[in-house]
């Protein structure tokens, strides 16, 4: 149990990758695991676009400053969701499966970074031929890590916690 908690704490966003290819079967294993993510009413309103071609990764990397890590990535997985399949929760469901991709990749030794996709949705649609009705929720850039960044700071648990009522900061009502 401690090992799994430490696994969760040890994931970092990785933005620099080795040139080494990610084997296709390893990438498919990650996606095969990620599809076990929870979704509202188990609707699974997601699909995955695997991008490996360098020229496409580079094109996507130019869509925003935040997308730059795609330039050196070995591959990317673009998670698209269908609002018709889950009208209220499609973005949440898509975020959950995206995180599962990140965690499954971490488990097999791959580094990932989530590239914000909603603000570059039109560019992604054009580059990847995504139909108008589907929303790209995330682009998960991945590859074998070429960096091991220190943890980014987190808010303390104390700052986040309320007991029973909002504003009650201690279990004794303090
Ligand atoms: C919804 C979302 C959008 C993000 N967009 C970007 C992005 O466009 N480019 C980027 O380099 N990192 C992006 N990130 C990664 C965050 O910057 C990173 O998760 C955060 O700083 C915490 O660092 P850590 O993942 O190493 O713990 C995004 C993360 C999330 C969850």
Offer a few descriptive terms.
binds flavin mononucleotide, NADH Oxidase, alpha+beta, globular, 174 residues
Give the secondary structure arrangement, pairings included:
Elements: H1 2-10, H2 24-34, E1 46-51, H3 54-61, E2 75-81, H4 90-107, E3 111-116, H5 121-128, E4 135-143, H6 157-160
Antiparallel strand pairs: 1-2, 2-4, 3-4
Helix pairs in contact: 2-4
Radius of gyration: 18 Å
Bound ligands, each once: flavin mononucleotide
- Spans of at least 5 consecutive residues whose pLDDT stays below 50 are none
Mean pLDDT reading = 97
Distance between the termini: 32 Å
Number of domains: 1
CATH topology title: NADH Oxidase
β-sheet strand percentage: 15-25%
Q: Name the shape in a single word.
A: globular
Helix content: 25-40%
Number of helices: 6
What can you see in these coordinates?
This protein is an alpha+beta fold and 174 residues long. The protein has one domain (13-147): NADH Oxidase. The protein is 33% helix and 16% strand. The chain is built from six helices and four strands; from the N terminus they run H-H-E-H-E-H-E-H-E-H. It has helices spanning 2-10, 24-34, 54-61, 90-107, 121-128, 157-160, and strands at 46-51, 75-81, 111-116, 135-143. A four-stranded antiparallel beta sheet has the order 1-2-4-3, sandwiched between helices. Helix 2 packs across helix 4 (90-107). The radius of gyration is 18 Å and the shape is globular. The model has no long low-confidence stretch (mean pLDDT 97). The chain binds flavin mononucleotide (FMN).
């Amino acid at each position: 149990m401690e090992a799994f908690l430490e696994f969760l704490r040890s994931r970092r966003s990785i933005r620099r990758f080795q040139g080494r290819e990610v084997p296709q079967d390893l990438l498919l294993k990650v996606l095969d695991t990620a599809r076990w993510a929870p979704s509202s009413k188990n609707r699974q309103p997601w699909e995955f676009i695997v991008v490996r071609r360098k020229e496409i990764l580079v094109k996507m990397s130019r869509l925003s400053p935040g997308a730059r890590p795609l330039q050196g990535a070995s591959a990317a997985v673009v998670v698209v969701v269908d609002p018709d399949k889950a009208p209220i929760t499609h973005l949440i469901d898509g975020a959950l499966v995206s995180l599962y991709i990140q965690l499954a990749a971490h488990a097999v030794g791959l580094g990932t970074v989530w590239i914000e996709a909603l603000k570059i949705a039109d560019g992604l649609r054009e580059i990847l031929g995504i139909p108008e009705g589907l929303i790209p929720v995330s682009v998960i850039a991945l590859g074998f890590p070429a960096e091991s960044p220190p943890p980014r700071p987190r808010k303390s648990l104390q700052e986040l916690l309320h007991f029973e009522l909002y504003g009650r900061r201690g279990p004794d009502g303090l």
